[in-house]
Description:
Elements: H1 3-26, H2 29-60
Amino acid sequence: xxxxxxxxxxxxxxxxxxxxxxxxxxxxxxxxxxxxxxxxxxxxxxxxxxxxxxxxxxxxx
Length: 61
């Protein structure tokens, strides 16, 4: 996983956590949902980058 992929995935997760927390504090269910979506996006980016790295390792050997 490249450094930029890690940063991007972590950024999405962090942004999602902040949105979800803010939504919970203000009672905004829409913002809570957006936060969870952002976190899921970060997880998907991380999973995709890990799969890409794993495939690269398999084919490089």
